[in-house]
Amino acid sequence: MIHIKSPQEIEQMRPAGQFVAQALADLRSRAAVGVNLMDLEHHARKLIRERGATSCYWDYAPSFGNGPFRHVVCLSVNDAVLHGLPKKYALRDGDLLSIDFAVSVDGWVGDAAVSLVVGTPADEDLRLIRATEEALEAGIAAARPDNRIGDVSAAVAAVAASYGYPVNDEFGGHGVGRTMHEGPHVSNTGRAGRGYRIRPGLVFSIEPWFARTTDRVVYDPDGWTIRSADGSRTAHSEHTIAITEDGPVVLTRLADDAIKPAPAPEAAARG
């Protein structure tokens, strides 16, 4: 179901978005060669406990997955891209790590994700991450009143195509509000001018994720971790945005940027 928020409700969502942004920055700073994924998981639990927030992942039990999710952060390494189950794994030099974090604060949800390279980065990994970040900004710029969700999806797909990356449409962005997943679904590929009309009060996430050489995925035996079908590396970026009369506001950016409507991204070299 799609829930339109009032301006007051969007203001009430800001603390959750800011906490998610701060927690991701903290977790990102701690991701280093030799750090165990479970150390990041336990630090995320500590942050949530100290803030008095509630994890949206703990006990999450959708139609896919192997039983309730018993962690508070998704940590996906290299060819894993979504729903990575934290485990006893020490990060290695050159690992590509995606961190996805969603919590509820005072009954409102914030959801975002970042990708980074631990230690020595390979150019092709930085390029892949950059593509997801540029696609995210392009999607945000397209999320304007009276546009359609298809405009957002098409903007994301256009950036992927410019980099030569295939796009999987099974998982994407989604409405955000009192729960982590509301309507509408925001695919990473679509046709401009189609889909639900964007209007003030709509709050949703945009989350481009690409694998370098495939649009197909496979699941680990844990029933959660989603990997590229051919073992190629992956990256994932995500923000929660609110639509206002003046355009999109990014709720999961740190405070200096979160209060400003997102600008249209400038053209970037595709390197």
TrEMBL record:
<dbReference type="Pfam" id="PF00557">
    <property type="entry name" value="Peptidase_M24"/>
</dbReference>
<feature type="binding site">
    <location>
        <position position="238"/>
    </location>
    <ligand>
        <name>a divalent metal cation 1</name>
    </ligand>
</feature>
<dbReference type="GO" id="GO:0004239">
    <property type="term" value="F:initiator methionyl aminopeptidase activity"/>
</dbReference>
<feature type="domain" description="Peptidase M24">
    <location>
        <begin position="11"/>
        <end position="245"/>
    </location>
</feature>
<feature type="binding site">
    <location>
        <position position="174"/>
    </location>
    <ligand>
        <name>a divalent metal cation 2</name>
    </ligand>
</feature>
<feature type="binding site">
    <location>
        <position position="111"/>
    </location>
    <ligand>
        <name>a divalent metal cation 1</name>
    </ligand>
</feature>
<feature type="binding site">
    <location>
        <position position="83"/>
    </location>
    <ligand>
        <name>substrate</name>
    </ligand>
</feature>
<dbReference type="InterPro" id="IPR002467">
    <property type="entry name" value="Pept_M24A_MAP1"/>
</dbReference>
<keyword id="KW-0645">Protease</keyword>
<comment type="similarity">
    <text>Belongs to the peptidase M24A family. Methionine aminopeptidase type 1 subfamily.</text>
</comment>
<dbReference type="GO" id="GO:0006508">
    <property type="term" value="P:proteolysis"/>
</dbReference>
<feature type="binding site">
    <location>
        <position position="238"/>
    </location>
    <ligand>
        <name>a divalent metal cation 2</name>
    </ligand>
</feature>
<comment type="function">
    <text>Removes the N-terminal methionine from nascent proteins. The N-terminal methionine is often cleaved when the second residue in the primary sequence is small and uncharged (Met-Ala-, Cys, Gly, Pro, Ser, Thr, or Val). Requires deformylation of the N(alpha)-formylated initiator methionine before it can be hydrolyzed.</text>
</comment>
<dbReference type="InterPro" id="IPR036005">
    <property type="entry name" value="Creatinase/aminopeptidase-like"/>
</dbReference>
<dbReference type="GO" id="GO:0046872">
    <property type="term" value="F:metal ion binding"/>
</dbReference>
<dbReference type="GO" id="GO:0005829">
    <property type="term" value="C:cytosol"/>
</dbReference>
<keyword id="KW-0031">Aminopeptidase</keyword>
<feature type="binding site">
    <location>
        <position position="207"/>
    </location>
    <ligand>
        <name>a divalent metal cation 2</name>
    </ligand>
</feature>
<comment type="subunit">
    <text>Monomer.</text>
</comment>
<feature type="binding site">
    <location>
        <position position="181"/>
    </location>
    <ligand>
        <name>substrate</name>
    </ligand>
</feature>
<feature type="binding site">
    <location>
        <position position="100"/>
    </location>
    <ligand>
        <name>a divalent metal cation 1</name>
    </ligand>
</feature>
<keyword id="KW-0479">Metal-binding</keyword>
<dbReference type="GO" id="GO:0070006">
    <property type="term" value="F:metalloaminopeptidase activity"/>
</dbReference>
<dbReference type="InterPro" id="IPR001714">
    <property type="entry name" value="Pept_M24_MAP"/>
</dbReference>
<feature type="binding site">
    <location>
        <position position="111"/>
    </location>
    <ligand>
        <name>a divalent metal cation 2</name>
    </ligand>
</feature>
<dbReference type="InterPro" id="IPR000994">
    <property type="entry name" value="Pept_M24"/>
</dbReference>
<keyword id="KW-0378">Hydrolase</keyword>
<protein>
    <recommendedName>
        <fullName>Methionine aminopeptidase</fullName>
        <ecNumber>3.4.11.18</ecNumber>
    </recommendedName>
</protein>
